Amino acid sequence: MLNRRLIRIKAFKTLYAHVFSGEESVDAAVKNLMKACEMTPELYYFLLNITGSVTRVARERIEAGLRKFHPTEEEASPSYRFVDNRFTALLQKDPEFGRFCQNHALSWADHDVYVKKLTASILSSDYYREYITSSEDSFEADCLLWRRIFEEEFEDDPMLESIIEERSALWPDDICYVLNVIIRAIGEQVAAFRRTGLESLEQVLGKRAFIHPDDKAFARELLEESVAGHEEYSQLIHSKVENWDSQRLVSTDVELMVMGIAEAVHFPSIPVKATINEYVEISKFYSTANSHVFVNGILDKIIKEKIASGEIVKIKEEMMQF
Question: Domains in the chain, ordered, with CATH?
Fold first, then answer.
């Protein structure tokens, strides 16, 4: 689930907390990093689990309409297509999904106001109207509706952001990425259905924190090497700052560059250009407006020197090109 950039961001934040808390051991820092990584799948399943809550509210609205003395034509003859959505039904009946959500308390029960707001927004949308009036009634159409909901309803929603932050301080950085993973996974499920004709959630469920087996080792080693070389690398960074009071260096810039140097030195299979680009991009979101220029310049200078001295050796010669 986690791509390498998100792993780097989580490692950077853990390193920053470790350096400035001055209390936790390296083992404790690594444990915190692993916890931060494992929290991302929890957000994924938390967001998916809203499907059941929205369906419940939609069904309650239908039942309330039927109880009216003078229902509208639509209330008197409601469409059950959404509340009987096959994607939702499969998800809510899946035992592993249910156990995961229960074991990690991934319930929307305490957020009924938001669920009702979301349901109202969905039911009033043009794409919902197209869905319930379409002649195509299939698992594919049901999946595509939920993909559209995740595309349209969740981005830049202050109420959702507040819920996410309240649930976990580790989640706000992940929300956009996780939404994209959900959207992509539903798209992959639709493609699988077109190939096989089987209604399943194989592409949607079973997500884990680390995509590749070596990603967990990458996260751990990146943090450990950044901590081990912190004093050496931070002194080197300060020595490269010309005509500038080193005490005025932005602390986030320093930690990002420490991690960038550690990665360049200890991961021979990662091109130096890729390493520099990654930490420059991260600095745009987690430091000052001009940090990306500063981080790029200092990292470039230090890494070139270490390549020249032989301290940095890449597996392929072309990886050493800037």
Answer: 4-196 (no CATH), 229-320 (1.10.940.10)
